[in-house]
Amino acid sequence: MLQTFASSISSLLDARADGHSLPAGLYTRQDVFEADMDVFFRKHWICIGLECDVPEPGDATVVDIGTSSLIILRDDDAAIRVVRNVCRHRGARILDPGPTVVSKLVCPYHQWTYELSGELAYAPHMGADFDKSCKSLKPVAFRLIGGLIYACLSDDPPEDIDFLAEVMAGRLAPYDIANARIAHQADVIEEGNWKLTIENNRECYHCSANHPELCVSFIDLDFGFDPDSLSPEDREVAREHEALYARRTENWEAEGYPSKAVERLSDCVTNFRTQRLIISGAGESQTPDATSASSKLLGHMTRKDTGDTHLWGHNSWNHFMGDHAVIAIVIPLSADKTLVRTKWLVHKDAVEGVDYDFDKLTSVWLATTDQDAELVARSHAGVKDPAYVPGPYSRFSETNLDKFASWYIDRMRANGY
């Protein structure tokens, strides 16, 4: 039965044409969704949260990934831990989804009680010969990368997470995300497959027609263009922009801000891209007027003009600016529903109404996320239609989608599909 299941998915993988979107079944079928959860959300590293989700000892938050439930917590020694939200007695959930504060982890069912380290402290009526030492909560492999928490639910996590950590350590250090404060969190459920969510984020072909708020600070030339379609005047503008990028990147790096593009989008396990992008207009932040939302800058930042350090992976995208950061985490809920969890970070001491304006801080990405949700729903409705035929990606504006689709196919095959 398992062989037939894998073979059926394999035929869909084989049907994908280079340079084209995926066959419909890879977006819509339940068996593909289950395979995706196994391959990409259990066997690969995924971003699950932030160190500042649990700023104090005793702070905990629960994140559900498919049928798995994880507790992120800060223990009595102020260390981050990630453990399975499964009691070692009869498997009951210990904590409900979302944030909480605890002194110990107590299972509501039979009161088995665990230290914040995960060790079983108390198991009533189990007898004098009961060995508590082998009943600790199961730990989850995780890495702290610049204040982001990456986890892998496999017992054999990919080793190439080390390269991501190496690349991002210096880039994220000035923002001190581990000690930032979450000013706002918004959960949006998109009516579409998680791959459509990621594809939509990895191109800005659609931005000028759909994201007026974001386009105040985004530069459309950054996201690809057909040079033959430009007038001589516009081609000159594009050349000047490329020259500006080269100068700005060189200057930023000379000043100690790593900026060059680093890509691991194919022929790899852990998929990511990072680059410091120029912010348009006033050049400071992704706000309605591209000026900073917070007068108290993030972490150790002393400048507002250091652009937007972006980082994306296969279940997240992030924008780090001088005054604030925007973190988005993607969690598939079903073949046709995807949770996008967005967090806005400010300096840990920033005070709303004094150091920053809430609407200015959040309005651009609140609007953009709602607009993207509508686009993803449109896309998913279309791929379910019998008339859908995989279409060609733009070789100017959608090359990263082609790389993502190819990486997806490769990773599925590497895991036996």
Description:
The chain is an alpha+beta fold and 417 residues long. It has 2 domains: 53-141, Rieske [2Fe-2S] iron-sulphur domain (Rieske Iron-sulfur Protein); 179-414, Naphthalene 1,2-dioxygenase Alpha Subunit, Chain A, domain 1. Helix content is 29%, strand content 23%. The protein has 9 helices and 17 strands. It has helices at 2-15, 25-28, 30-40, 161-172, 194-201, 207-210, 232-254, 358-384, 399-414, and strands at residues 46-50, 59-65, 68-74, 80-84, 98-101, 105-106, 113-114, 120-122, 141-145, 148-152, 181-190, 262-264, 272-277, 308-313, 316-320, 325-334, 337-346. Strand 12 (262-264) and strand 13 form a beta hairpin. Helix 5 (194-201) crosses helix 8 (358-384). The longest helix is centred in the C-terminal third of the chain and has 27 residues, at 358-384. InterPro entries: Rieske_2Fe-2S, Rieske_2Fe-2S_sf, Ring_hydroxy_dOase_asu_C_dom, Rng_hydr_dOase-A. It holds the Pfam family Rieske. Keywords: 2Fe-2S, Dioxygenase, Iron, Iron-sulfur, Metal-binding, Oxidoreductase. This is Aromatic ring-hydroxylating dioxygenase subunit alpha. One of its GO terms (molecular function) is dioxygenase activity.
Helix and strand arrangement:
Blueprint (H helix, E strand, L loop, with lengths): L1 H14 L9 H4 L1 H11 L5 E5 L8 E7 L2 E7 L5 E5 L13 E4 L3 E2 L6 E2 L5 E3 L18 E5 L2 E5 L8 H12 L8 E10 L3 H8 L5 H4 L21 H23 L7 E3 L7 E6 L30 E6 L2 E5 L4 E10 L2 E10 L11 H27 L14 H16 L3
Antiparallel strand pairs: 1-10, 2-3, 2-5, 3-4, 6-7, 7-8, 9-10, 11-17, 12-13, 13-14, 14-15, 15-16, 16-17
Helix pairs in contact: 5-8
